[in-house]
Amino acid sequence: MTTHAIPYESQLCAQTIAFLRRLPGRLLIGGQWTPAQAGHTFTTYEPSTGQPLAEVYQAEAEDVDRAVAAARAAFEGPWRKITPLERERLLHRLADLIEQHAQELAEIETLDNGKPLSAGKAIDVPSTVDMFRYFAGWPTKIEGAVKPVSIPNRLNYTLREPVGVVGAIIPWNFPLSLISWKLGPALAAGNTVVLKPAEQTPLSAIRFCELVCEAGFPDGVVNLVQGPGEITGAALVAHVGVDKIAFTGSTEVGRLIMRAAAGNLKRLSLELGGKSPHIIFADANVPQAARVAAGAIFGNAGQSCNAGSRLFVQRNAYDQVVDIIAKRAGEIKVGAGMDPHTEMGPLTSAEHFERVTGYLRSGAEQGAVARVGGGRPAGVPEGGYFVSPTVFENVRDDMAIVREEIFGPVLVATPFDTLEEVAQRANATPYGLAAGVWTKDIAKAHKLAGLLQAGTVWVNCYSQFDPASPFGGYKQSGFGREMGHEALEHYLETKSVWVAM
Ligand code: NAP
Ligand code: MG
Fold first, then answer.
1. Does 271 contact ligand 1 (Cβ within 6 A)?
2. Cα(377)–Cα(352) distance, rounded to whole angstroms?
3. What pLDDT digit, counting tens, does each position of 287-318 carry?
4. Beta strands 369-372 and 390-393, pairing class
5. Any bridge partners for residue 196, and if so which?
6. 43 alpha carbon – ligand 2 mean position (Å)
7. Quick check: CB of 234 below 6 Å from ligand 1?
């Protein structure tokens, strides 16, 4: 088995180094860390240099089969016998362990995904802890109801029961925190899980699953399979032993999953892409709005489903807003995630780098003008997947860079005149994930919040997330909600029980 040099070794904590030395990454099936049956592996890369980072066993259909069987056995056996209070304790123990291993988890995420270590420590790991703590509070509060039926001498009540075996499929942009978005509600509701991370970022899931075992969850409650979507993901989605697929990823793959899940009519929740409008009126706190708008597109190198990627500014504030954003874009320190000065890391994969730079070319070809950025930044490590923070002006609503999700640090900026006009243009997209509105006029803010076709609207702020607040898409940004009790609903069935009295 190939072993790769450990990048940035002198900067890593001892636990991270020990973790990397334990690789190749195995699958977790029924509480056992096991190689894939066929013995194939795939490589994950370090995005700041493009060098191989680690090998991970690739699960094929027979491995997925074993993982689903283990999840079913746990669901019908030990997990069912665990009381709600004990489920709460286990979820809290898991949250504690994630918190205790924060440094190591953030380092693993940076090496595999590319994001700045500071971001992993400030955002990804703490939000994962918070999510498990929030859902740890739910098992003892999931209640049925007695229904006021009108048939004489009949008692009717409802039981809330877990759906069963959940296949959780997640992308590479927030690998660790998206695990918590799925597993928090799935486990709180009493389901068992087969998790499939993205092949670009398999590593934090391995360390996470080691902590699941350490927390004391019964064998088979959480299983981990790794590998490409077309092989491992597809086997999971088609498997008749899986009751529900919880998916985050692109709209295109969401559509494939809907078709493939039809065999046994799996429950589905789909959190898909976005092209979210960020709307700034001239009567807003313009400097603050512009600063936040820059963060909304350049944070996580634009690789956020809710990135504020279409900027609409009311005409007489347009120049001021774009000046501030362009200035900020030019100042952002782009570099390796392990460099403590880095504010924006590389994109996560070579393939995605090709996709984003393709959009930079298509924007220029179609007549858009890059006010700032548009290429590769200077002074970054050789071989890394770096793109400059970019602001395109002179755009038309029919350009590919305006219509399609780029998922990179690329903003398209355009002026508007009236509320009615901007509502219509903001909604002229198949997506409907999120939107931002900046104005000091509360009537205008509420009116636009009502008109926008989006699962989340932020007013005078952006990218606010909390485990208690539901998040998800309208239109082709998917269906179902993450977080809040709304998320829990997607992991529960309702049984109606009638009793003759
Ligand atoms: P993607 O290609 O759709 O992949 C997402 C996951 O699905 C990966 O684990 C992928 O595996 C797997 N997959 C691919 N093809 C599959 C198939 N045929 N059957 C089963 N699974 C399959 O998405 P991405 O490009 O990696 O991620 C970026 C997208 O995610 C963006 O569109 C973004 O907006 C969206 N996103 C949405 C949210 C949200 O909450 N709405 C959050 C984050 C990201 P492999 O990658 O290993 O092949
Ligand atoms: Mg990687």
1. yes
2. 17
3. 999 999 999 999 999 999 999 999 999 999 99
4. antiparallel
5. 169
6. 8
7. yes
